[in-house]
Amino acid sequence: MRELLLRLNRHFAGRLATTVVVLMGTFQCYWWLNANLPPRFDLSLPVDSAIPFLPWTYAVYTSFFVFPLVAAWALEAEEYVRMLGAVLVVNALCYLGFFLFTSHFPRPSVESIESLYWREQFRVMWSQDLPGNTFPSLHVAVTVLGALRLRHRRAGVLWLVWAGLISLSTLTVKQHFVVDVVGGVAVALAAHAVFFRRWSVGGADAGTPVGAVKVPGEVRP
Asked: How much is the pTM?
């Protein structure tokens, strides 16, 4: 199975197709949970009400959907396949959190948005993405996980900045509580530690686990 995945994702076109399939597949579960789980907890803190609603940060928030595609372009096949496994585990952990700690975010009225353009963007988004599925933030978890791998690539600090801005935007578009963001970061760090704790950094053997000896022409199991 692993060798098949490596062959399918050897080139960018294959990784791009895999990314789209995984996104569409996991969103089915996300939407089902969001539509069927009633709220049971209030995860709000005083700091949540102090964070301003900034509709224009919708542009930053939705750039999340570009992030996995860029990761598919930047990562080599073997590292990408391992990342794919980590992303699926992150999704599973977040879905478990949605089920165990179901909470709904009290969104502001769409009519309070002055800009007609941003008002329409939020109207569409909130009609499709209901106020549940908050803890931990899947947006944050997947983005931070990707940034932790991409930080070793060219302009690595920019990936971290991008992930940080996306994480902050989940608060300013009133999609998540602060505790959701903290939970998302924790899930990302845990998944990265499990899947990449022995992965070397940089160099020609960036895809070789630390301690492994890479023999020319050898296919690692």
From this structure: 0.86
